[in-house]
Structure formats: structure tokens, C-alpha cells
Amino acid sequence: MTGEFAIRRLLAKDPDRALEAIRELTADPDEHVRRLASGGTRPYLPWAVRVPVLVERPEATLPILDALYRDSSEYVRRSVANHLNDLARHAPDAVVATARRWLSAADSNTKWV
Questions:
Q1: 82: which residues sit within 8 A by CB, 6+ positions away?
Q2: pLDDT tens digits, residue range 28-54?
Q3: Which PROSITE patterns does the UniProt entry name for this protein (predicted)?
Q4: Confidence of residue 1 (pLDDT cuts 50, 70, 90)
Q5: 3-state secondary structure string across the chain
Q6: Residue 47: CA atoms inside 13 Å, Cβ hemisphere, count?
């Protein structure tokens, strides 16, 4: 089961408040919860309803990705990579800037993402 559908309804209704709560999930000890933070906020999540604010404000989810791109779990990092790929569709400059920033503080997992 997944909470992505519920998160997306919250994002559509009150994006700022939802994003604040979702950012807290990035520190959860459970990798599934951390993955939910990244996957649930993807702009083009294939199996879910679109949330226009995620496309209109691509920078809004970057703090979530910033918290997770060096995650110990490959499962979570793969979600971050998918999310970044989604952002590249409509905000390529933001993605390039983010990748450069991440590479300046890289660890062994950063280049893969």
C-alpha cells in the first residue's frame, strides 16, 4: 500500500503546509516513509493525479530532494533520481544547478543519482 494518493490530495489543497509536513518525513528511520516523501511529491508520478503546483513551482520540492539524495537506501535514492528526472521535463536549469550543487558535496552515492 502507498500513501502517495493521500499526499497528493494534501498538496493540491494546501501545498505549503503539505510540503512542510512532508519535509519532516525525510528524517524518518523507515526507508519507505522517506521514499514516500520523494515519490509522493514527484511532478509527473505516472499512476497518480497531477498536482499543478508541483509543475508551477519546481523549486518547492528541492528541499525534500536535498535531504534525500545521499540517503543510505538505494530505494530512496532511486526515487530521488526519478523525481529529478521529472523536474528536468519543465525545469532543466534548476535540475542542472541542483546536480552541480550536489556534486560539490558528493559522497559515494551522489554520482549515481
A1: 38, 39, 42
A2: 999 999 999 999 999 998 888 889 999
A3: HEAT_REPEAT
A4: low
A5: CCCHHHHHHHHHHCHHHHHHHHHHHCCCCCHHHHHHHHHCCCCCCCCCCCCHHHHHCHHHHHHHHHHHCCCCCHHHHHHHHHHHHHHHCCCHHHHHHHHHHHHHCCCCCCCCC
A6: 7
The residue type of 49 is V
Residues 6+ apart with CB under 8 A from 66: 98, 102
Q: Give me the long-range contacts of 109-112 (CB less than 8 A, separation at least 24).
A: 109/69, 109/70, 109/71, 109/74, 109/77, 110/69, 110/70, 112/77, 112/81
pLDDT in tens, 86-101: 999 999 999 999 999 9
Q: Is the pTM of this model over 0.90?
A: yes
Task: Pull the grid cell for residue 66.
Answer: 536535498
